[in-house]
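Hi team,

Filling in the usual template for the complex we talked about on Friday. All components are listed, including any nucleic acid strands or ligand strings, so the model treats them as one assembly.

SUBMITTER: L.P.
PURPOSE: interface mapping
COMPONENTS: two
RESIDUES: 230
SEQUENCES:
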Amino acid sequence: MNIDNLKSPWKRYVLENSMSSITENEILEIIDQDVKLKVRSKWHAILTNSLVFSFLLIFCQGG
Amino acid sequence: MNIISKNDFLYLIKDNQGIILSVCNMYYNNSEDIQDAKQEVILQLWKSRYAFKNECKVSTWIYKVTINTILSLKRKERKQLNKEPISEFNFNRSTSYNYFDDPVLQLKQIINLLKDDDKAFVILFLEGYSHKEIAKILNTNISNVSTRLSRIRNRIKKLYKIIQNEY
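RESULT (copied from the run log):
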């Protein structure tokens, strides 16, 4: 079996797979997941920073 | 295409879904795993859209992100399961279909028997990429690609003989 003989079945396979469809909604849902995650991590960072800042302000003043 | 908008991205995925699905199907057999891998690939493509420059074709970029995402998923799975990649003796004979009748099925069965890393080399070779391009896509050097592909050729010959004897 020569590996080159698999080239044309591969082309056919990719073509067959391009017929089945990934819907727009499916793609948008995945993209939105990323946006939501980014927003969540942004809020998480703000909250963590505020807590650290408050702690420093309350307990670590003076010299 | 410097900045890929949401609409451009939708068209880009639709135009190249054959690549994404073919690669996912080569690495996973279970429809749930294929779905998960497909979602992860689309997510990674979306995240890395700013990194795409016109230095290469869109399809090359899609292959690069798809293969590298799946390889990293596979590495994570292996760590979790502490499991070795599919061995050549793990051949699935459950189908009553004679795979010699269908070249696509034959292709799938043969690639299925290769190690995860080797699959990536074969897929890119079958797509017609040069050794230099494969090296660039898989972040390796040209001599490694030549060596790996030559080993894979021999392995495929061996596997083909094993499968022939099985049937």
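MY TAKE: Residues 52 and 58 of chain A are 10 Å apart (CA to CA). Chain A has a mean pLDDT of 88.

Thanks, L.
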